[in-house]
Design a protein that fits this description.
Serine Threonine Protein Phosphatase 5, Tetratricopeptide repeat; 21 helices; elongated; 418 residues
Length: 418
């Protein structure tokens, strides 16, 4: 048993153990320069003795690369970069975890020598195809950065960049689901999306990439999710492919997002009753309060278009309840009130009084949500001119400061002011 354990320390176990201990002590002291010689001996003579040889080796060799950069010694820098690549290769040889190690290897190569981006790209492509949604954030971002470089160098086309974006985005989104409060992951996601937008793939490019894949494998859930996600990201939601993929996705795996996609498509087709049903299904399936609030607001707008104003208001209030300090629902309610002035009152005063409750909603919207203050102020300026004046109010026996209840479907109290 002892002999078997000792075998990993090579042909000279005592020397190996001595150098392991020596380099480890230097490493703990962050003395990477003096750690280099005993580390190199271990790396060459007893490479199976410890995985730490490779974990620590990355830091030790990276220190030498940085020193060569500072000295502007390009030849030495490149030699140490090659050594760093050997560290990763030997780790895979003796300790496996090929995909995870390839991720690190590719990112380090690109960081130290961007001119070798094609090598990094091929490593990441292999790693991501193995790890899929388990790919690390650094590798996902690097993959997208290098994909853009590959396209600019005419080594891949836009269609491949679109496909690579799907892979990178899927991996980061999976990480965010596990760590929703990780701000760094959110930044990585935003950077990946910005890179994708910078490429500017048009709908035809995206559709030409995904259409054959959809036809060949229409029940592949991962593919359907990628298709709908990318088409939605690039505002290609009026395409037949988006409709077909969304419908298929919803039939195979009903989800809030799939139901929302179908609702939006039904709206574009003018099928508002059908859209309403899909929105209600999306609301039922959605767990995230902010997303649910968005669905309620879209449903409120839909009911407004159907002329169902009281129901629209109910949905708008639900949206406001779910997302704190959100002004948009109140802008919608105020706009609906203002549009009802002619049908809410038997005389000129009662019809104009409707604008008071509309203004109440606009003022509330900007008070709780400064981001929509500009829109609210425009509406306030537009509708303030239509409220009753003093003479009109006096004629109907009303004075400033009194409480007044607007009738019809609105049925809401306000304060008389001029």
């Amino acid at each position: 048993m002892y002999a078997q354990d000792d075998a990993k320390f090579g042909t000279d176990p005592e020397t190996c153990k001595m150098n392991l201990s020596l380099y480890s002590e230097f490493y703990k002291q962050k003395n990477y320069v003096d750690a280099l010689t005993p580390w190199r001996s271990v790396f060459n003579t007893c490479p199976e003795s410890s995985k730490n040889i490779y974990i620590h080796g990355v830091r030790i060799i990276s220190e030498q690369i940085d020193k060569a950069k500072e000295a502007k010694n390009l030849e030495l820098k490149n030699k140490y970069i090659d050594t760093l690549m050997m560290v990763y290769d030997q780790r895979i040889k003796y300790f496996g975890q090929e995909a995870d190690v390839l991720e690190r290897k590719a990112v380090d190569l690109f960081k130290n020598d961007e001119s070798r981006f094609e090598e990094s790209y091929n490593m990441l492509l292999k790693a991501i195809d193995i790890n899929k949604e388990k790919t690390g954030a650094a590798a996902s971002l690097g993959f997208m950065q290098i994909s853009v470089l590959m396209m600019n160098a005419q080594k891949i086309d836009k269609g491949v960049v679109v496909e690579n974006y799907s892979k990178a985005a899927e991996a980061v989104e999976a990480s965010i689901k596990e760590k929703p409060d990780d701000a760094d992951l959110v930044k990585v996601k935003e950077s990946i999306e910005a890179l994708f937008v910078s490429v500017g793939p048009d709908c035809d490019v995206i559709i030409s990439l995904f259409q054959p894949k959809f036809e060949a494998n229409p029940e592949n859930l991962d593919l359907l999710k990628n298709i709908t996600k990318v088409l939605k990201k690039q505002s290609c939601t009026e395409s037949k492919l988006f409709f077909d993929a969304s419908e298929k996705l919803y039939s195979l795996e009903p989800s809030a997002e799939a139901a929302s996609n179908l609702a939006q498509m039904a709206v574009k087709k003018g099928e508002l009753s059908k859209a309403s049903k899909f929105y209600l299904q999306a609301i039922e399936l959605q767990q995230d309060a902010n997303e649910k609030a968005q669905y309620y607001l879209e449903l409120a707008n839909l009911n407004k278009d159907l002329g169902q104003l009281a129901q629209a208001r109910t949905y708008a209030f639900k949206a406001a309840e779910l997302r704190a300090n959100w002004g948009m629902p109140y802008l919608l309610i105020g706009t609906m009130y203002a549009s009802s002035s002619k049908s809410c009152g038997e005389n000129d005063f009662e019809q104009k009084a409707v604008f008071w409750v509309a203004l109440d909603k606009f003022y509330k919207a900007k008070a709780i949500d400064p981001s929509i203050a500009e829109s609210a102020n425009k509406l306030i300026n537009t509708y303030s001119q239509y409220i009753p004046d003093k003479e009109n109010a006096f004629f109907y026996n009303y004075t400033e400061g009194q409480s007044y209840t607007v009738g019809c479907w609105i049925n809401e109290s306000t304060t008389i002011r001029f």
